[in-house]
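Kindly inspect this one:
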Amino acid sequence: MPEPILAVRDVHAYYGHIHALKGISLEVAAGEIVALIGANGAGKSTTLRAISGLVRPRAGDILIAGQSVRDRPAHEIVYLGVSHAPEGRRVFTTLTVNENLNMGAYSLGRAKETIEEHRERVFRLFPRLKERRNQLAGTLSGGEQQMLAIGRALMSDPKILLLDEPSLGLAPLLVKAIFETIRQINEAGVTILLVEQNARAALRLATKGYVLETGRIVLAGPAAQLLADERVRKAYLGEA
């Protein structure tokens, strides 16, 4: 079996005295889309934050292509090929679209041609951003800000993209467009770990999934299997 691009091994993480992750383990193979689903407060965002170095695990390990990143600072983890589009978009509202994209490319140093190449790739995915490239990010619509958050994360040319609630607060038509773009990003060779409140859409897109409840993984398997699982259907798909 080839080495997974991401392996989370028995990770425990805390916020102060709150035990947020209670020994979670998961794997993502190169080329996959893996969905992480669960209720609010289950630990989904904390899992992504632990992988990208924003939360330091107190126990367990996280490996990127076989290398432990548990004690590495967040900027070093970016250099290893991990990019994180956080929940709530977190774009720099007083910077333009272009300037936001440049912030995502800081790991490329002064490689102007490469940065320009990556920017054009983002603009092909999101033509709306090209039209708005000199506009302040704070003046964009919610959907455009989500496009920018994903585009900024792609500027470092990641091996694995961590997406946290990309459809949150978007109109249904835009949600459909964002999910289609996620599929295209994956087809272009980027592995994706997706945290998403829209469990049905996430599992339809994913190859496999994990279900998180109060800091523990309670179910895992092929996405189609989870979609058909009665417990998942009752708890996350709104079916009686």
